[in-house]
């Protein structure tokens, strides 16, 4: 499944790009992120607590930054296992471009998500909406963090 | 399921206290949603707070509204003569939830607190301009539902009851998911003297929502033709293996027509 | 005799089941019992880089944790294939190994990787969470259409193909297609189903270290077969060292025919830890690991001459057999499918090619009807399309092509020889039951209400009573097709029947008693039925393929023949007459032309208290066993007609009427037959409208609970009109044919044809299964868009 969305940010592209590479920003943006540590320049280890309705599961995994094309974008991907619940992975291609006024930045993204195991078996009706919601939350958190 | 502790609260403040003193306590109402989740080991609360003895059951006619206790079972709402008299559509909705076993355990509060995107009750709360009464405050329906499975409830907040305004006329039309029999699309239409409210469940990616185009069309002309004049968009609607967003959009129009003409 | 053959007596077993007193495998507990829980793959296809079981082994209550290497070290083999077919090029079916626990690789979501055995189920589950599996993921092969170009699933298996089989005369058939006045082409998909027996699979294994023997309680439709496979092929122990008991079993529908890895692991580990080991699937595991059913794509070409008579049929099939070859997976799409392609039509030449494919999904095997629903579906959909294309009434087009009544025995172009049949009366009766001739009036009345009304016909035949051993052997079977029964007459004349067949809902205790009651003239209540225990009953092949009565019932009849024959000799002695002059009727022996008589009970007593008995020529006692190998299949046939109304606004299909007229030969208990037909139709309606096993492109099963897998419910079904005609089977003593699968075979095409018929005024000519509201709604939308162009 693919999900696309875009935001207009009143900030220069370099600022946005820097934030996209800052683990502090990322940690505050990833919904439910409890831990995010850089283990190599483009790899971070993560712990995320996901609550969907009555379900509540902790996912442990990695966040990778790839296809880096400063300051125009990259791909951020994450995958984690939630024990009995199964596994989830997702990636977002993030595109940054200057707004016509030259001041602001347009951030757009394309998200792909996959789930495995019990969450796929029992929650199929929710997969798409949840992925969309989490992606939206990530970027809206990110935008909010930026505007602080 | 993982082993856990159950405490029985005597009243809602005791329940709130028990939540506060647990690490990840959960309120247990009818258990129709919570227990299957626990059995699948998809949650691991250290404590379950049983609120069945908190005195939160019952139906009260308040004149312009009906107030129903959070622990009132679906079956009790379906069979209540005061609900049948004041808001028959609500009794109807409750009687169409799940199966007999579910209706004899599941509660209004549990359904509203859970805010499953396919649940029936949230649409009634929305369309009947309801108010959710908690141990702390009163929350209007429009402020209560915050996207699928999300509500305005705080960690230490318990729903005590829900009030529904009496409409001139109302109807809930549910197109059940053939497998789960939850709503694939459910439309609650309520006509008040000052306008029509239309709440849609089962369809929105963000859970229950009010359909403003349908509301304004029906507010000026309460008829099937008015519904036909509205192009229901599939934007923001759910798509899953059971139904695409387009099909859900079609069902919203169709269920609304049926609700209006019933 | 009111309780004998042909009486609709109430089922003996129902009181027990309806009051919750059944005793199922999971209800049985043994001292010192521990519980197994399987660690299963979350991914569809991967190499296993490592498995770490250390933390799990040390967890609370854990007795043992085993992985594939442990099984391999003990030399325990995996489940075997009970059927193979030759490929077109003469080579053999590819039979890849199916290890009990994964060895280096997982091939579907649910594949077992490790087993954790603990003092309680919850402890076993908790410890399982601590088993760490490191995967190297491989591309899933979840799509049947592209399976042949997918990643290699089994080492050395070309194009993920288990077999490539053919039947019939290709040259003659292609010639018929070329010379035809009309060729009707159709591509259909038979959707994948999950069996959903009410009782999930379960096993309890116990090892007796004194005798060196095992006892396995398990959910099996055929405990003797399970014992043979487990003992002789997997464990290589003497069969006598393994007792297999299938106690009450809550439904099977085929899914409990096979030996699964779980029961083998329980047996194996019960010896390793010397404690009884129990495992019971939860519903999710059932969805993931019970053998699924159907999943075919069929390309059909039907050749017609100028007079609309069929002159040839070609069917090219690819079918999905999943990650491992289950016991009868090969048989289902070949000898239970290819051989049925003539239906009840006179077709001079038929050719079929079937490719059995591997995918990274659960294994697929027999499910109620097994191959015959697929054959009937493609054929009856094609008959319908053909009738529409040539502008004939759907019923009359079928009638024109039926094998005529005087053509029996009829040799089909696909190996089978139908012994008897008369198809028009079923069609006529079903048409009368549903008032076919007034249908157009009902259609126009419905259209005034804004509904599209349609009527659909399905005429089917099935081959039941599996199976003549020689035929099965010639077609690739590795097992016999006979059945057994023993009749033990007690000294007072009551009777116990020991059957090799197995009842898991069918009602054998009742129908088999009725046969005894009829033949021996004793009340039904005086007959006990024993089944499902390899230590108690004679070797039997079990229950599947509508065989219990047509093969097991006939074995019982033959054992009763022996009882009667011996009884006559005893009676002759008692009455001082010659055995040839003794007649037996209604439980009494008489001597022709005299008033001498003696009761069956007296004869039984004499056999066990042989004070006045011809001991020099006759053994005492009265207990006889018979084994019966059928000469041919039996061929139940019939016509089902469905009538539907479609709501164009939502696409919802309402079944408004259903008429079924079946020829099952003689009926032992018409009420039970009707129940079987109802259940079969319900399952067929499930397939046609509701059920679908949905794997996503990564091989994840998205329908693994009742939230998403849609089973038919009572309110989805109309009230069925069910009638029977009777042309008795010519080659078995009871003249019976079998009725267990007919409903599931006949109903899907009747329903889909009815929906197409309803929408044909819009120009709709195709409909896929399941015809969900959205599928139907889309077909209407597309047709309307086409019309608007
Ligand atoms: C087979 C089946 C079919 C169903 N079909 C339908 C259907 O068609 N339509 C439909 O709408 N629903 C359906 N349901 C759901 C049913 O209505 C449940 O009863 C409901 O979702 C949850 O209510 P409960 O009382 O069982 O809550 P529980 O399962 O006990 O709790 C649910 C959640 O709400 C919280 N909670 C409960 N009460 C309160 C409270 N007073 N204050 C704060 N938090 C609280 C709990 O902590 C938990 O997180 C179905 C359920 C099943 C099992």
SSE topology:
The complex is a heterotrimer of chains A (148), B (262) and C (789).
Chain A: E1 2-9, H1 13-20, H2 23-29, E2 33-40, E3 43-52, E4 55-69, E5 73-81, E6 87-98, E7 105-116, H3 118-122, H4 124-146
Antiparallel strand pairs in A: 1-7, 2-3, 3-4, 4-5, 5-6, 6-7
Chain B: E1 5-8, H1 12-20, E2 26-28, H2 34-39, E3 47-50, E4 59-61, E5 65-69, H3 74-79, H4 81-86, H5 88-95, H6 100-103, H7 108-114, H8 121-127, E6 131-134, E7 138-140, H9 141-144, E8 159-165, E9 169-176, E10 183-192, E11 195-201, E12 209-210, H10 212-220, H11 224-228, H12 245-261
Chain C: H1 14-18, E1 34-40, E2 46-52, H2 54-57, E3 62-67, H3 68-73, E4 105-106, E5 112-118, H4 121-128, E6 132-137, E7 161-168, H5 170-179, E8 182-193, E9 202-208, E10 213-218, H6 223-235, E11 242-245, H7 261-272, E12 277-280, H8 283-289, E13 293-304, E14 310-320, E15 350-357, H9 372-390, H10 394-401, E16 410-411, E17 417-418, H11 423-433, H12 439-448, E18 452-461, H13 469-474, E19 483-489, E20 495-499, H14 508-520, E21 527-530, H15 548-575, E22 582-585, E23 588-591, E24 597-599, H16 600-608, E25 623-628, E26 637-646, E27 653-663, H17 670-690, E28 721-725, H18 742-759, H19 773-788
Parallel strand pairs in C: 1-12, 10-11, 14-15, 20-21, 27-28
Antiparallel strand pairs in C: 1-5, 2-4, 2-6, 3-5, 7-15, 8-13, 9-10, 9-12, 13-14, 16-17, 18-26, 19-20, 19-25, 22-23, 23-24, 26-27
The complex binds flavin-adenine dinucleotide.
Flavin-adenine dinucleotide is lined by residues 26-34, 51, 70, 97-98, 102, 105-107, 109-111, 113-114, 116, 119-121, 153, 158-159, 181-182 of chain B.
Note the main attributes of this structure.
heterotrimer, B: about 260 residues, Uridine Diphospho-n-acetylenolpyruvylglucosamine Reductase, domain 2, Uridine Diphospho-n-acetylenolpyruvylglucosamine Reductase, domain 3, Enolase-like, domain 1, 3 domains, 12 helices, about 25% strand, C: about 800 residues, alpha+beta, Aldehyde Oxidoreductase, domain 3, Aldehyde Oxidoreductase, domain 4, five-stranded mixed beta sheet, 28 strands, binds flavin-adenine dinucleotide
């Amino acid at each position: 499944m693919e999900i696309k969305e875009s935001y207009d940010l009143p900030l220069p592209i370099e600022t946005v790009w820097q934030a996209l590479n800052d683990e502090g920003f990322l940690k505050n943006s990833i919904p439910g992120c409890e831990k995010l540590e850089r283990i190599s320049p483009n790899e971070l280890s993560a712990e995320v607590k996901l609550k969907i309705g009555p379900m509540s599961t902790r996912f442990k995994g990695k966040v990778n930054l790839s296809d880096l094309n400063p300051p125009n974008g990259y791909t951020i991907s994450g995958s984690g296992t939630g024990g009995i619940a199964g596994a989830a992975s997702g990636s977002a291609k993030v595109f940054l471009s200057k707004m016509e006024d030259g001041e602001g930045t347009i951030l757009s993204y394309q998200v792909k998500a996959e789930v495995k195991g019990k969450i796929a078996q029992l929650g199929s009706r929710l997969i798409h909406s949840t992925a969309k919601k989490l992606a939206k939350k990530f970027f809206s958190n990110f935008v909010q963090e930026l505007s602080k | 399921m993982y082993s856990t502790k159950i405490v029985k609260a005597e009243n809602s403040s005791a329940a709130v206290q028990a939540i506060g003193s647990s690490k990840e306590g959960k309120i247990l109402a009818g258990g129709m949603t919570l227990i299957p989740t626990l059995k699948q080991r998809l949650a691991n609360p250290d404590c379950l707070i049983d609120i069945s003895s908190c005195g939160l059951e019952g139906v009260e006619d308040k004149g312009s509204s009906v107030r129903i206790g959070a622990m009132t079972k679906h079956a009790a709402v379906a069979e209540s003569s005061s609900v049948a008299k004041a808001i028959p559509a609500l009794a109807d909705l409750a009687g169409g939830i799940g199966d007999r076993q579910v209706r004899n355990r599941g509660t209004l509060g549990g359904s509203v607190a859970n805010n499953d995107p396919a649940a029936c009750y949230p649409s009634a709360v929305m369309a009947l301009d309801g108010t959710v009464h908690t141990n702390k405050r009163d929350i209007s329906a429009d402020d209560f539902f915050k996207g699928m499975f999300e509500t305005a409830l705080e960690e230490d907040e318990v729903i005590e009851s829900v009030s529904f305004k009496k409409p001139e006329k109302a109807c809930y039309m549910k197109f059940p998911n053939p497998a789960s029999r939850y709503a694939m699309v459910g439309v609650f239409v309520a006509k008040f003297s000052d306008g029509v409210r239309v709440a849609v469940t089962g369809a929105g990616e963000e859970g229950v929502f009010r359909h403003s185009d349908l509301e304004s069309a029906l507010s000026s002309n309460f008829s099937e033709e008015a519904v036909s004049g509205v192009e229901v968009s599939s934007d923001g609607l759910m798509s899953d293996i059971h139904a695409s967003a387009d099909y859900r959009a079609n069902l919203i129009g169709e269920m609304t027509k049926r609700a209006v003409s019933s | 005799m009111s309780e004998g053959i042909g009486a609709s007596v109430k089922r003996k077993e129902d009181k027990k089941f309806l009051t919750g007193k059944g005793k199922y495998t999971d209800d049985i507990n043994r001292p010192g019992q521990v519980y197994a829980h399987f660690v299963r793959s979350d991914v569809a296809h991967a190499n296993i880089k490592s498995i770490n079981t250390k933390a799990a082994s040390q967890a609370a209550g854990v007795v043992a944790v085993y992985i594939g290497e442990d099984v391999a070290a003990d030399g325990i083999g995996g489940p075997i294939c009970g059927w193979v077919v030759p490929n077109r090029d003469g080579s053999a079916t590819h039979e890849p190994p199916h290890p009990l626990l994964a060895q280096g690789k997982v091939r579907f979501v649910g594949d077992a990787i490790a087993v954790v055995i603990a003092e309680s189920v919850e402890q076993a589950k908790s410890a399982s969470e601590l088993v760490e599996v490191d995967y190297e993921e491989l591309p899933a092969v979840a799509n049947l259409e592209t399976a042949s170009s997918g990643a290699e699933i089994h080492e050395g298996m070309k194009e993920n193909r288990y077999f490539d089989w053919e039947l019939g005369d290709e040259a003659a058939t292609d010639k018929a297609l070329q010379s035809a006045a009309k060729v009707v082409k159709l591509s259909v998909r038979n959707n994948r189903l999950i069996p959903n027996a009410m009782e999930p699979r379960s096993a309890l294994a116990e090892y007796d270290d004194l005798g060196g023997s095992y006892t396995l309680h398990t959910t099996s439709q055929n405990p003797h077969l399970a014992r043979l496979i487990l003992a002789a092929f997997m464990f290589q122990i003497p069969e006598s060292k393994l007792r297999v008991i299938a106690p009450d079993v809550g439904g099977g529908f085929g899914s409990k025919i096979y030996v699964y890895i779980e029961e083998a692991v329980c047996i194996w580990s019960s010896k390793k830890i010397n404690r009884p080991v129990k495992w019971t699937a939860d519903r999710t595991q059932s969805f993931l690991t019970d053998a699924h059913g159907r999943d075919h794509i069929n390309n059909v070409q039907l050749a017609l001459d100028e007079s609309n008579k069929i002159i040839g049929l070609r069917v090219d099939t690819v079918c999905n057999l999943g990650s491992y070859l289950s016991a009868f997976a090969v048989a289902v799409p070949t000898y239970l499918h290819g051989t049925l392609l003539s239906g009840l039509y006179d077709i001079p030449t038929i050719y079929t090619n079937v490719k059995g494919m591997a995918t990274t999904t659960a294994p697929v095997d027999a499910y109620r009807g097994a191959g015959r629903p697929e054959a009937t579906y493609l054929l009856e959909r094609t008959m319908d399309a053909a009738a529409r294309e040539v502008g004939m009434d759907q019923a009359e087009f079928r009638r024109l092509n039926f094998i005529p009544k005087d053509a029996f025995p009829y040799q089909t172009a696909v190996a089978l020889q139908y012994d008897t049949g008369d198809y028009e009366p079923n069609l006529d009766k079903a048409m009368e039951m549903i008032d076919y001739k007034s249908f157009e009036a009902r259609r126009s009345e419905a259209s005034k209400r804004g509904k599209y009304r349609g009527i659909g016909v399905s005429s089917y035949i099935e081959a039941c009573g599996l199976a003549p051993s020689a035929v099965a052997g010639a077609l690739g079977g590795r097992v016999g097709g006979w059945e057994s029964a023993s009749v033990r007459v007690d000294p007072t004349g009551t009777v116990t029947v020991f059957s090799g067949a197995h009842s898991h809902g069918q009602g054998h205790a009742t129908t088999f008693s009725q046969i005894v009651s009829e033949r021996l003239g004793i009340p039904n209540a005086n007959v006990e039925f024993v089944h499902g225990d390899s230590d108690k009953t004679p070797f039997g092949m079990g229950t599947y393929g509508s065989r219990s009565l047509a093969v097991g019932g006939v074995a019982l009849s033959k054992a009763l023949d022996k009882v009667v024959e011996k009884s006559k000799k005893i009676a002759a002695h008692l009455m001082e007459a010659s055995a040839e002059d003794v007649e037996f009727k209604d439980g009494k022996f008489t001597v022709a032309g005299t008033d001498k008589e003696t009761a069956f009970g007296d004869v039984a007593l004499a056999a066990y208290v042989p004070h006045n008995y011809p001991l020099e020529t006759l053994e005492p006692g009265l207990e006889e066993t018979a084994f019966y190998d059928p000469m041919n299949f039996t061929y139940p046939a019939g016509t089902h007609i469905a009538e539907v109304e479609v709501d164009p606004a939502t696409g919802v299909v309402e079944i408004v009427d259903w008429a079924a007229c079946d020829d099952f030969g003689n009926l032992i208990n018409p009420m039970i037959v009707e129940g079987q037909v109802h259940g079969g139709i319900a399952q067929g309606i499930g397939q046609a409208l509701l059920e679908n096993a949905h794997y996503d492109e990564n091989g994840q099963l998205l329908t693994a609970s009742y939230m998403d897998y849609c089973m038919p419910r009572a309110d989805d079904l109309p009230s069925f009109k069910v009638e029977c005609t009777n042309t008795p089977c010519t080659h078995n003593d009871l003249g019976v044919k079998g009725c267990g699968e007919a409903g599931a075979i006949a109903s899907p095409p009747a329903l889909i044809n009815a929906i197409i018929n309803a929408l044909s005024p819009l120009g709709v000519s195709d409909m896929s299964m399941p015809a969900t509201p959205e599928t139907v709604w889309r077909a209407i939308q597309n047709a309307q868009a086409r019309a608007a162009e």
